[in-house]
Amino acid sequence: MISNKERVNIVKAAAVLLFAAVFAVTAARAQTQQQWRDSLRVVNGLIELHPDSVGLQLDKAAVCLQLHEWEDAITACGKVLGRDGGNLSALFYRAYANNNLRRYEQARSDYADFLRMAPDNMEARFGLAYTYSRMGRSQEALDELNNLVEMYPDSSVVYAARAELEKDMKLYDTALYDFDEALKRDPGNRDYTVSKVEILILLDRRGEAKAALDEAVKRGVPRGLLLGLYAKCK
């Protein structure tokens, strides 16, 4: 006869083995919706056996996010935060789910709480900047991205993110500067080149736009992917 303590240990071991596989990044990309639903059934079964497990509730929230079951993800995160109010994973997951439900104030609050405990976290600060942007608070979004540039000056991603926001705000000169900084750090990035060229075309600086395209081709971007932009440079 298996004791309760032994049952708990078996459940914990099963959970570790299951979710080490389920939540590996490469495996996650390959999961189909049906596979995620199968994973959710397993999680729910484990939760029935071990209802106080914070880890299993977090696993459930992560699976629900993959299935776009935002409310269920929020409920699971709420159970975690009820036991551990400073759980960063639960705050992040809940903020992400609330953003998808357009509950931007709730998402902003969770990201802010997260960053009070982990101010250097890039993903949460990106999330907060995105939330401010969706709320129409562009300057506050820009402030968050300015913070990211200061914290991660070697990251092409943060320069490009700030440039995209500046582009939306029609701050074209500063956006061009930031795209140049992004391209210094990631010269072959086609997306950065496309965004930069689009701004140059908007400003009717077509010669510079063509030069930027030529430079991208030299850096290894296939010319065929840029033909539409080349046509706009004429």
Attribute tags:
234 residues; 14 helices; elongated; mainly alpha
Question: Can you describe this structure?
Answer:
The protein is mostly helical. It is 78% helix and 0% strand. The chain is built from 14 helices and no strands. Helix 10 runs antiparallel to helix 11.
Short account of what is shown:
This protein has 234 residues and is mainly alpha-helical. Helix content is 78%, strand content 0%.
Q: How are the secondary structure elements laid out?
A:
Elements: H1 4-22, H2 25-30, H3 33-49, H4 54-66, H5 70-83, H6 88-100, H7 104-117, H8 122-134, H9 138-151, H10 156-168, H11 172-185, H12 190-202, H13 206-218, H14 227-232
Mean pLDDT across the residues is 86
Beta strands, count: 0
Give the ordered list of helices and strands: HHHHHHHHHHHHHH
- Cα separation of the termini: 81 Å
